[in-house]
């Protein structure tokens, strides 16, 4: 349940990145001690080395066994061609020093030009896309599951049409077990959630507490979620924070949450949501906060043919 974001260009780690990764290493260990077992990672976060090390240290201490941990890895946009899928996953496993991931997902339904550049651009600074064949990429993920490199396979940021494309694929062996999407009280995803429920696809909600206010990639037209008066008022009643109420809301409606935090106190607080339940009335009040506005719009890629957010859901 620890969502550790960090988009950094490849190359030598800066002093900042080294400090950040040490912080992350500690955060993962604190989270495991607090009871977290689901760790949401990705090659593109540039911290799988530290995450793997923290998991292995906790296993060595006898605190956990490997099978207690649920690690989610992600296939990046430049690795969609089927022949790149397995080597990419093997690279992640090598960095983590683990034999398998519990879940491997296609991070975004948009293929970029394969190569060393994670965000390939032409001389005019325009992103270079690649022909996207989600069904072919999916078949390569199925082969990774058959090979035992991933226990389960899923997707992220897929809309209904893209999910149906996979599910209606001739010769489908395994359907996606999950779809990781933005989901919180200001963006409750009712239609996608209902569609996924009907097909036994688990929604994993990223940014369940809202997100940073970095205007370079975040839509700041929605106010900060955790300042919401309704969440704070309900929190007072239960002696909980607005963050704990937002997390409890999603968990209670069957959405898996992956809050990100480096702060030891907040890591522990985010886990303390299983000792109370929201009433039906409170759930309705929180559902009514939905603005249907994303924080994470990924507008820089909206001209991609498979940009997922043009559809209603």
Layout of helices and strands, plus pairs?
Blueprint: E1 2-3, H1 15-34, E2 38-40, H2 48-60, E3 70-75, H3 82-96, E4 101-106, H4 134-146, E5 150-156, H5 160-167, E6 178-182, H6 190-198, E7 202-206, H7 229-238, H8 242-252, E8 256-257, H9 264-271, H10 280-287
Parallel strand pairs: 1-2, 2-3, 3-4, 4-5, 5-6, 6-7, 7-8
Helix pairs in contact: 1-2, 1-9, 3-4, 7-8
Low-confidence segments, given as residue ranges, are 1-13
Assign the CATH architecture.
Answer: Alpha-Beta Barrel
CATH top level is Alpha Beta
How would the global form be characterised?
globular
How can the largest sheet be summarized?
Answer: 8 strands, parallel
- Provide the CATH superfamily: NADP-dependent oxidoreductase domain
Bin the helical content.
25-40%
**CATH topology name:** TIM Barrel
Give the strand order, joined by hyphens, for the main sheet.
1-2-3-4-5-6-7-8
* Tally of structural domains: 1
Q: Care to describe what's here?
A:
There is one protein chain. By secondary structure, the chain is of the alpha/beta class. It has a single domain (2-225, 255-263, 292-310), classed as NADP-dependent oxidoreductase domain (TIM Barrel). The protein is 37% helix and 12% strand. The chain has helices at residues 15-34, 48-60, 82-96, 134-146, 160-167, 190-198, 229-238, 242-252, 264-271, 280-287; strands at residues 2-3, 38-40, 70-75, 101-106, 150-156, 178-182, 202-206, 256-257. An 8-stranded parallel sheet has the order 1-2-3-4-5-6-7-8. Helix 5 (160-167) links the parallel strand 5 (150-156) and strand 6 (178-182). The model is unreliable at 1-13 (pLDDT under 50). The active site is at 45 (proton donor). One of its GO terms (biological process) is bile acid biosynthetic process.
């Amino acid at each position: 349940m620890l969502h550790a974001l960090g988009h950094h260009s490849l190359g030598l780690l800066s002093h900042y990145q080294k400090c950040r990764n040490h912080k992350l290493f500690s955060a993962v260990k604190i989270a495991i001690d607090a009871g977290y077992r689901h760790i949401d990672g990705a090659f593109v976060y540039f911290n799988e080395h530290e995450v793997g090390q923290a998991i292995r240290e906790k296993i060595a201490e006898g605190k956990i066994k490997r099978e207690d941990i649920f690690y989610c890895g992600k296939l990046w946009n430049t690795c969609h061609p089927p022949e790149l899928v397995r080597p990419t996953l093997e690279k992640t496993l090598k960095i983590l020093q683990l034999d398998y991931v519990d879940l491997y997902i296609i991070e975004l339904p948009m293929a970029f030009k394969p190569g060393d550049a994670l965000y390939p651009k032409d001389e005019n600074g325009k992103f270079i896309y690649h022909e996207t064949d989600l069904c072919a990429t999916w078949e390569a993920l199925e082969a990774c599951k058959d090979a035992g490199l991933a226990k389960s396979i899923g997707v992220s940021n897929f809309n209904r049409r893209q999910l149906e494309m996979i599910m209606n694929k001739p010769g489908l062996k395994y359907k996606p077990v999950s779809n990781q999407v933005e989901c919180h009280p200001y963006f409750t995803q009712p239609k996608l959630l209902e569609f996924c429920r009907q097909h036994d696809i688990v929604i994993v909600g990223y940014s369940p507490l809202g997100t940073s206010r970095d205007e370079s990639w975040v839509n700041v037209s929605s106010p900060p979620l955790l300042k919401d008066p309704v969440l704070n008022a309900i929190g007072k009643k239960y002696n909980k924070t607005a963050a704990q109420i937002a997390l409890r809301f999603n968990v209670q409606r069957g959405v898996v949450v992956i809050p990100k935090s480096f702060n030891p106190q907040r890591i522990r607080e985010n886990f303390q949501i299983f000792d109370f339940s929201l009433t039906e009335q409170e759930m309705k009040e929180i559902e009514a906060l939905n603005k249907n506005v994303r924080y994470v719009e990924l507008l820089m890629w909206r001209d991609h043919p498979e940009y997922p957010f043009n559809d209603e859901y």
